[in-house]
User: What shape does this take?
Amino acid sequence: MNSWIEDESDDEDSYDQGSASETQDAESQTSEEDDEIDLENLKLDDDSTPKSLYSSKSGITWSSIPYPSKKAKSSNDTSEKAGPTKLTEDVSSIQDAFICFILEKIIQKILIYSNMERTRNIASNEKSEDITMMELKAFIGLLLLAGLLGKSKKKH
Assistant: This one.
């Protein structure tokens, strides 16, 4: 009966030795594997404040204090009041609203170059007149309406 107790104690001794060596292996792997910092056990300087710079074995340095942001902070200070601008104060029709987006000078340039292109591409025996400003504005209006209604590529 004593032999059985001795065998059991021998097994425990061998188990303890094995587990101790596993623990030692794990500790050596941890210290060799990574350069992590144990944040729970930070060493304090003489003035009892946490260290701000940490360095690893590989020479990389980390700071526990974030660098100041280079982005300008936004503020809610607005210099303009809400509402229509000087350009849109006098809008009373669809045409006035359209002119806020496309200036009259641009429409005149479109008219001039459209008529030049038509003249260049017309056959010598064909007779055709230049398009007028009203026709151009009507065409642009129809294009906008077709886009608004989604009819630009649909067939009826």
